[in-house]
Design brief:
It is a single chain. The protein has five domains: 142 residues, ATPase, nucleotide binding domain (Nucleotidyltransferase, domain 5, 2-Layer Sandwich), CATH 3.30.420; 78 residues, 2-Layer Sandwich (Dna Ligase, domain 1), CATH 3.30.1490; 139 residues, Nucleotidyltransferase, domain 5 (2-Layer Sandwich), CATH 3.30.420; 64 residues; 31 residues. Helices cover 45% and strands 24% of the residues. By secondary structure, it is an alpha/beta fold. A hairpin with a 5-residue loop joins strand 18 and strand 19. The strands form six sheets. Strands 1, 2, 3, 6, 13, 14 and 22 form a seven-stranded mixed β-sheet that branches. It has a five-stranded mixed β-sheet with strand order 17-16-15-20-21, sandwiched between helices.
Length: 490
């Protein structure tokens, strides 16, 4: 039986595309109805789509797998975005409340938010805004509405990324003819809401998503996001380092998972312990883990640097929380404890709410958390409504009425013809939208090139060159004047 009421989401990971569909229940739990995943190393690098055609083909494939399981068409999906250019940027916007001391209104607060959201950023776009505090004259307020004063300043944390990062995602979905529900979601924000408790966000914590090609660091305090950064390094860097042992990537990944240890110490009972490759070659565990430990230490050092950069490193009473596939590396927590000199370190592999409909083996490794978090963030029905209406119409009673009113030869293909016309119209609208976006993109590129050419032409010229050009011009001008005089004499 077809499913006609569901939420669908797609996570564009650093090396995979994950698609999921499910329902929310009144008790806060999630029921997964369908899920699919495809590898994406040939068109996604560090969370950034760089090949539109291949990405569109993969999206079409993964949505097709969802629809096959759901036995229904997907009209739109919630999409999570990350990538190595994603980071937080602080901003402040000030306004005068009035000539005399007056009350801050909600309209003024909304105007401050809109002004911040429209702040122009060169080559960057604001994906989301997290209001921090509001300063009314000399006092800070979480909610300034109703507070009296002369001046109000809104402090914001803008989540920004390169414009091309967002454009490429939107172009891939447009080419695949898949609608994006609402607007692009920041995956890290959705993950935090899914895995962190209110107490952890209030007390202060750092959430570290240790992915395959990227590592995302999010810092929370007093229930607000205070800092976010995507590091362009992940667990795949460890795997690639292991290939220096003259082994293939797949073999290196297996050895990392089975024998890897971020805080390895040789055992006195067996100081020359080793592991075997698929070819039967022995590799000393000390040599293997020296490589793993060195790269893991570098990644963790960058994570700790971002936590300190946030300015909240001494206020994170809930500690540091690791998640993601890379967090499965043995003794990763211990290695970070030594680096940060903190005992408050743990790893989470599941969401705070109950998830049904997926095998425990998929839920227990933490690699589906991001997709489930995006699913949980959605609210609108993502099923194609005309499909639902068409299924509802084709009932025994409807068929009987149709046969009574019209000849069989006339109504046999009626629904199919209407459906085709509707699909053709939708396809035409999507194609016009795609062509318009492409035309705008090309026009933008053309304008940028024209501006660069104009800028080069208006650059300050060498004074010496200018002097000789003017001197040469005066010579030619004198010659011309002499010729004119001779002509008049003649």
């Amino acid at each position: 039986m077809a499913t006609t009421d569901f939420i669908a989401a797609i996570e564009l990971g650093s090396s995979k595309i994950s698609a999921i569909a499910g329902k929310k229940h009144s008790d806060g739990s999630m029921e997964v109805l369908a899920h699919a995943r495809v590898d994406a190393p040939s068109f996604i690098h560090k969370g950034v789509v760089f090949n539109i055609d291949k990405a569109a083909a993969a999206l079409t494939s993964v949505i097709g797998k969802l629809e096959e399981q759901l036995k229904a068409s997907v009209a739109q999906v919630y999409v999570g975005i990350g990538g190595q250019s994603l980071h937080s940027l602080k901003s402040a916007v000030s306004r005068s409340v009035g000539d005399e001391e007056s009350t801050v209104s909600q309209t003024l607060v909304d105007a401050l938010y809109d002004e911040n959201r429209e702040t122009p950023l060169a080559d960057y776009v604001i994906l989301d805004v997290v209001p921090q505090e509001f300063k009314v004259d000399h006092s800070l307020h979480a909610d300034p509405v109703g507070v009296t004063g002369h001046h109000v300043t809104g402090q914001y944390l803008n989540l920004v990324a390169r414009t091309q990062l967002k454009k490429n995602v939107e172009m891939a979905f447009a080419q695949a003819q898949i609608g994006i529900a609402d607007d692009l979601l920041v995956t890290a924000v959705a993950e935090a809401k899914a895995v962190l408790t209110q107490a952890e966000m209030r007390q202060g914590c750092a959430l570290v998503d240790f992915g395959s090609d990227t590592t995302t660091v999010s810092v929370y305090k007093n229930n607000l996001l205070r800092h976010l950064c995507v590091l362009p390094i992940g667990s795949n860097n460890i795997t690639r380092d292991l290939t220096s042992l003259q082994i293939e990537d797949e073999e290196a990944e297996k050895l990392k998972i089975q024998y890897g240890n971020a805080a390895y110490e040789a055992q006195e009972s067996d100081p020359e312990a080793s592991c075997l490759t698929s070819e039967g070659r022995a590799i000393p565990l000390a040599e293997l883990n020296n490589i793993i430990g060195a790269r893991a230490e570098e990644i963790l050092a960058n994570v700790w640097s971002q936590i300190r950069l946030s300015g909240y490193d001494n206020q994170l009473y809930a500690g540091t929380i690791f998640m993601g596939g890379g967090a499965l590396l043995k003794n990763l927590e211990e290695a970070f404890r030594k680096l940060s000199k903190s005992d408050r370190v743990k790893t989470v592999l599941k969401t705070q709410f109950t998830v049904r409909g997926m095998d425990d083996s998929l839920l227990s490794n933490g690699t589906w958390i991001a997709a489930i978090a995006l699913l949980h963030a959605g609210n609108e029905n993502c099923c194609r409504q005309e499909e639902t209406a068409r299924v509802a119409e084709v009932t025994p009673a409807t068929q009987t009425a149709q046969r009574t009113e019209q000849p069989a030869s006339q109504d046999l293909f009626k629904d199919d013809i209407d459906l085709r016309l509707q699909e053709d119209e939708e396809r035409r609208i999507r194609e016009e939208k795609r062509q318009k976006q492409e035309a705008e993109r090309l026009q933008h590129i053309k304008e940028e090139r024209a501006a660069k050419v104009k800028q080069q032409k208006t650059k300050k010229r060498n004074p010496l060159t200018t002097f000789f050009e003017e001197l040469s011009q005066s010579f030619f001008t004198d010659d011309k004047m002499d010729e004119d005089k001779q002509d008049r004499r003649r």
